[in-house]
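Customer escalation, tier 2.

The customer says the design service returned an amino acid string that "doesn't look like it belongs to this structure." They asked us to rerun it and document both sides in this ticket. The original structure tokens are below, unchanged.
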């Protein structure tokens, strides 16, 4: 199975984004703190490559703090880029984001006479609309725990200084790195109809065995992890009651249970991708 998801609306969203480039002063790239590089869309970065960029590592509550700190140190090396780590509690978000945008655009001559324009972009389901709502201090954009909730651009006048534009989550046509594609599936950026759940369940179980064996043991009350994937999946199925009426393993159900547990942080904070050293 090759993991891929690039529906027509993403192609259209890309075209619409290109139209914004000339009038944009800065961009916010929203990343998933569990997979900061794998959640960066190369097409979007190329479109906005000349713009001052604030990278927000979102969903930090679901990532390991040490890993997020290492990524932040890594990102801080590139010029014209600042990075911040954010979690569901976005109380202090406004000031730090606005400060970062101000510093980034201090020397930028804006094409806009009134407010500067900032585009929020990133892959699906990473938290773009949630961040825009937090910055605005009210729920203007629809959010939801599934990819492709935002279907079109949404523009708000944030204050006297800034216009913000929320955009639809975008992936890219070919996910060359299939390990990264698995991570995108696990974190919830690929719609469930685009993959074979049973197969992803197996791959996710193997991935978590490598990354977080202790978390798997604790969550599913396993004394030891079975060596074979089939037995590992069977153990998780028994622990989560993912069985058919006849008592057989229900491959779809166990995959869903495992993905739900990972996505909602029930295995504790877990980072899948390490920062380059
Ligand atoms: N745990 C956690 N969940 C978050 C955080 N930020 C957003 N979410 C949740 O992630 C889901 C997706 O949020 P959205 O803001 O709709 O994401 P989006 O990037 O706008 O998604 P699309 O519009 O589909 O591309 C929602 O269920 C949010 O409540 C966070 O910091 N931590
Ligand atoms: Mg959205």
């Amino acid at each position: 199975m090759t993991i891929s998801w690039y529906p027509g609306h993403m192609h259209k969203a890309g075209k619409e984004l290109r139209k914004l480039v000339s009038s944009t002063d800065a961009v916010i790239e929203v990343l998933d703190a569990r997979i900061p590089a794998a959640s960066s869309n190369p097409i979007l970065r190329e479109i906005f490559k000349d713009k001052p960029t604030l990278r927000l590592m979102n969903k930090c509550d679901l990532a390991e703090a040490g890993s997020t700190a290492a990524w932040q140190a890594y990102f801080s090396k590139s010029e014209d880029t600042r990075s911040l780590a954010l979690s569901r509690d976005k109380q202090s978000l406004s000031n730090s984001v606005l400060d970062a945008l101000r510093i980034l655009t201090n020397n930028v001559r804006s094409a806009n006479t009134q407010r500067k324009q900032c585009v929020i972009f990133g892959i699906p389901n990473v938290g773009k609309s949630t961040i825009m709502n937090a910055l605005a201090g009210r729920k203007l954009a629809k959010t939801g725990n599934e990819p492709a909730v935002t279907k079109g651009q949404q523009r708000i006048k944030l204050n006297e200084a800034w216009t913000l534009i929320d955009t639809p989550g975008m992936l890219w046509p070919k996910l060359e790195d299939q390990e990264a594609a698995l991570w995108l599936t696990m974190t919830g950026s690929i719609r469930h109809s685009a993959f074979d759940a049973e197969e992803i369940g197996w791959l996710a179980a193997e991935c978590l065995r490598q990354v977080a064996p202790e978390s798997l043991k604790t969550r599913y009350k396993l004394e030891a992890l079975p060596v074979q994937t089939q037995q590992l999946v069977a153990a998780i199925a028994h622990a989560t009651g993912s069985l058919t009426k006849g008592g057989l393993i229900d491959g779809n159900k166990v995959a869903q249970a495992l993905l739900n547990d990972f996505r909602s942080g029930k295995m504790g904070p877990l980072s899948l991708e390490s920062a380059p050293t």
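Tier 2 assessment: The sequence is consistent with the input. The first helix runs from residue 8 to 18. The chain has a mean pLDDT of 94. Sent an explanation to the customer and offered a walkthrough call.
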